[in-house]
Amino acid sequence: MSAVKEEGTEHRILEAAQRVFTRKGMAGARMQEVADEAGINKALLHYYFRDKQRLFEGVFKGGAEKQFGCIWDSLKGREHLFEAIEAFVAAYIDRMVENPQLPLFIANELNRDPEGLRAFIDRGMESRQLFLKLVADARERGEIIDIDPRELLVNIMAMCAHPFIARPMITHIHGITDEAFRRMIIKRRKTVPEFIIRSIRA
Amino acid sequence: MSAVKEEGTEHRILEAAQRVFTRKGMAGARMQEVADEAGINKALLHYYFRDKQRLFEGVFKGGAEKQFGCIWDSLKGREHLFEAIEAFVAAYIDRMVENPQLPLFIANELNRDPEGLRAFIDRGMESRQLFLKLVADARERGEIIDIDPRELLVNIMAMCAHPFIARPMITHIHGITDEAFRRMIIKRRKTVPEFIIRSIRA
DNA sequence: GTCTATATGTAGATAGAC
DNA sequence: GTCTATCTACATATAGAC
Question: I want to staple A40 with a disulfide (CB 3.0 to 4.6 A). Which of A44, A134, B32, B54 is the partner?
């Protein structure tokens, strides 16, 4: 029983911490709130994760890093640019739907400590190379116009991530409910790749 | 001299506070840091702005709200969609260049307290209406394809704001310097409207 | 492994001299 | 208007019982 319980508690802590950290950010998060949400007390938090920084890293390694990793992985093995874009956008949006606070959380922590999360970013390097190659190939075949591939990647990620980052602004200014927002996001799995490909097709 | 000095100090405080708040967010910002950066001490901060919350509001009213306001204003008086998009993107990027931390700051505070900043968002309502009308007109004239105008607006804002929000990620993953980043942003004043218009042109 | 109680540090805010 | 010194509150972290 003890082994099971240990895993169970640690897991509950990590899930609670992920929620609190992504809601409030590193600075705004309270250990007490994490403890409450995990159904334990503060002391036990420190028992499992010596201090706040290590708890944060525990969340990041297990959660955010893995989620973003599998977005990049969606590019692996693709041979055609358009197909790669569709897969990437779908993977990106699906992960964000699972954890809508993630993009803002990442943006904040990357801004707070750019060096600390270098390993996280580096995970995407290989896929970035593949993406650049797919763009170059498509360009050579005359399928797309001449465009800076780095800018293209920025645009793609912008259209995937931004709705989640600016969600309160979007729902308010367009006067839509959370449910309507969700439907809009689902639609974007299709409309975003279309939007991008229309723009770059030769 | 005293009147001048009062204005001078209050102004220096607001500028310092804007920098610290946008760097660290509301929760992460320290009154001490604001005081240091303004070249005064904490007590004087509280003399000018009773507490942290009011200091925050002082910064927001005078700075962020005004800056975003003039982005929306760039749409006023436009009669053609493409021209409006070009003006909007240029205004958006120019304001962000002046204050690169602003988008992340806004995103955070909107997320923290959606109701509190309602007035801020509402400032854009009028221009939003105009934008929707310009899209409808262009659609009627058969100049653009059939697209959800709200999604279009989301895409435009995404491409303007996201580079600033994800800046550490972009510079690191593409291995570019801050100077190269700046050049990329300047280029985007032109390339983003082109990208968008290519995508929606009938 | 989990709790209660407590120590320690720090940030926001005030008092009061000049 | 500006400062030094101080109070208070709260968050992180630890000690120690069970």
Answer: A44
